[in-house]
Amino acid sequence: MSARSNLSQPAPSQPAPSPAALQFLSAPHRLLIGDGFREGRAAPIAVENPCRETTLTHVDAASADDVDDAVRAARAALDGPWGRMSGADRAAVMMRFAQLLEDNAPLMAEVMALDGGQPLDSCKAVITMLGAGLMRYYAGWATKIAGESFLPSPGGSRAALDFMVSTLREPIGVVGAIVPWNAPAGMMALKLGPALAAGCTVVMKTAELAPLTGEFFARLLLEAGAPPGTFNLLHGLGHETGAAIAAHPGIDKITFTGSTAVGRRIVQAALGNLKKVTLELGGKSPIIVFPDADLDQLVPASAMACFVGSGQACMAGTRLFIHDAVYDEVVARIGTFADDLVLGDALAPGTQLGALISARQRERVEGYIALGQQEGARIANAPAAWSGPGHFVAPVVFAEARADMRIAQEEIFGPVVCAIRFTDEEAMLRDVNSTSYGLSGSVWTRDIQRALRVARRVDSGQVGINVHAAVSPETPFGGNRESGWGREFGREGLDPYLKTKAISINLGERR
User: Fold this and answer.
1) Domains of the chain (ranges, CATH numbers)
2) Exactly one of 314, 411, 418, 482 is catalytic; which is it?
3) pLDDT digit string (tens) for 354-408?
4) Rounded to two decimals, what is the model's pTM?
5) Which residues share a beta bridge with 493?
6) Is 51 one of the annotated active-site residues of the chain?
7) Does 48 participate in catalysis according to the annotation?
8) Which of 77, 95, 97 is nearest to 33 (CA)?
9) Three-class SS string for 161-200?
């Protein structure tokens, strides 16, 4: 059974949730399987507010039997009403859903802020720009999925026959989607949009640390007219519910965003039926600063490229490679910018950085900060110590870091940036590509020839010039090496949800 909310009375710096949010939190939070919500058969999961360290509510969790039921419901919808819909009808459902996301964004954002600890305005932007924006973008593709026809050249005994080949692009089938706790509305839309456009059905597992936004997706998609079973929502622990989804023989494809370590386990679990896999994993993205960079643009952009979401972003620019000619100035200015950022409760006006997702994550980040000092890096700013409840860590700027330090090699997933000095371009590029990751990056210079030369040498799935991680629905995004498999966003993000069928037609003897 779902427990009631026991959200404590907020302090003056902790605005009270709205009546609508409190009503949402006090209701049961169940699983959507097929045509209705039901209780989970695993132990409920407590949901914490990371800014206040209080329990918001509990969500029902899915057992292996619940996963079986959800896969059956998804298969029935794929073979039935959703699978029979035209691309235009699918697009209409997706467009209605996008509008409902926008209409419900104020309440969704409030719940997402309470759930994940990030500022309210940031949550609203994720819902409207990523959530609704991605759904509209992929709705446009639903009517544009097409194969091709061609005349092949058969050999041997068939050389005298005339053939035509027609290819079809068909939905890959039932998709298992496993989403992370950072920016959940955007991550769910990133999986759901291309899957629905392609004609697939979805079994989605929320992140156990921030599961509540998924309930809005489930209810609003039904309201938009998606047939029962098109979208099935499960809560649960990763090593239980997530593992059951990854290994399930009735699922044709897995799409996952999260850590590289979990991505490896998903690949192993997917071997049973050789299901297709898309992975968006970790990152240690470089920001490369040359002496002619516009520092007035660079400083706020690079600081927020690392500190946005309190550093809990795969594409965060956590390694600053700064030319010696401007190193001291850039480090000083970024340190001042970092110290001026306002940490606080996710619902408080003016908050720029919220809390880390959990006590465990805070301890991990604090451990890396201590490690960086042990390795010989110097904290170049004055991060304030947080007093009171909440998993807060103030931004840290490490100066005199080296590329081989652990703080410059390993993903910290917190508000920590390492400033590395360079003079030689070739040596710098070797250091840039020395990690196991290759997700994002940026080059800052007014010299377009140098910018393009260096950008081409950075081994990442996306590189910006005088901008970092400029994601948009149209722009492909994904990682090289241990940062993942495949691409999301854009046309490249649709392709993994489709399979190709070739139909060969014998036209008789060649004339």
Assistant:
1) 64-281+488-496 (3.40.605.10), 285-472 (3.40.309.10)
2) 314
3) 999 999 999 999 999 999 999 999 999 999 988 889 999 999 999 999 999 999 9
4) 0.93
5) none
6) no
7) no
8) 77
9) EEEEEEEEEEECCEEEEECCCCCHHHHHHHHHHHHHHHCC
